[in-house]
Structure formats: C-alpha cells, structure tokens
Design a protein that fits this description.
It is a single chain. The protein is built from two helices and six strands, in the order H-E-E-E-E-E-H-E. It is an alpha+beta fold and 107 residues long.
Length: 107
Amino acid sequence: YSGEGGRLGGSAHRTRVLEASKYIQGKGGNIISGGGNSEARVSIPGQNNYRYPDIHAQINNENIFVQVGRTTSSGKMVSREMAAFTDLSKLGRTYYAPYDQPFRGFM
C-alpha cells in the first residue's frame, strides 16, 4: 500500500484509529496491536491469506478487530475494506470505523 502515510494511512485515518482505540480502552478493552502502534499480521483460517487489522483488541478474552477506511458516496465500505472486514470477521467480532463520517462508536 503506498497511499498518503503508507500502511498506517493518512492523517484522517490515523486520527480515527486513535479515536477507536481510546473508545475500546474506555470499554475495558486491551489493545493487542495497531491502535496507533504497529499493526500485526493475523492469519485467516481456511485461506493462504493474512490481514493487518488497524486495531486488534481483546475484551474479556474475546478478539475484537477494527478496520478504518473511507466510504462510498452511498455510505458503504469501499471494496478493499469490505474484503478485509469479511476476512477478519472469521476471527472475532469486527467493526468498521469510517474516517470520512462522524465517529459514533460501535460496541
């Protein structure tokens, strides 16, 4: 990925990652990777594939994943983020936090 800011995204993306990370911590979550720190690779079961979620957290030993990205003009995830969201959903509870809309939380 070679967009603004590289793998960690542009300033709006990074700001939303930090907002979502603080939100999760406020709900008692523990950030495992991402959330403003280094993203860690997670393997997708049943596939020879992996993802780097923007946030991997745990709450009560349950895996939580958050993807941050932009939306289409109709308010849906862009296809690249939808593919990541679908893959991460196989590993635990997964949320999408668009950076081009107001942050509303997700849990």
